[in-house]
């Protein structure tokens, strides 16, 4: 409950940077105007949230851009795995910043994800991107673990208590001592967040990124960014 008391998310505007009723979301990043296709009708399917953008994805993507520009994060040539990529904005921005990115999601989410990668990563791109199926808790192919990624990214991946242990299993398998995990999430359910943090602190050192380090134009008290490194 402490984070809710500090950030008071209910007093911040919901969906400040997205429009989930739109078929397309446009955002400027990395010197480009990115066009992210959405599928609002899929929200009617229980458990499907990756068909549209959420504020946490926008904030994480712009956080990466700002961090690279300020020199606090270096992504050129780094291996990045994005979990629960959804519409793919974060992974696309990481690729534009020079990373070798694997964007992942469940099998039924990959069509929209691939379309957004193809639409936005054209011409001269500093890094690269590939889309791959990944179900949390399943064993990982060598593409993910050989070598282990330098960064693991995720936005809104902590959304249900039932998925937390599968997520943790995948994070543990994906991460080495040199891997940095950066997760952004909207503060919806404090009990689920606490459940995840309790599990994460058994294996990882967990820190929260102060909003002063975020992109100056992309702030929300409804969102938190965490950094995890293996103990």
From TrEMBL:
Top-rank lineage group of the source organism: Eukaryota
Protein name as catalogued: N2,N2-dimethylguanosine tRNA methyltransferase
Record-linked InterPro entries: Methyltransf_16, SAM-dependent_MTases_sf
Organism the protein comes from: Handroanthus impetiginosus
Signal peptide boundaries: none
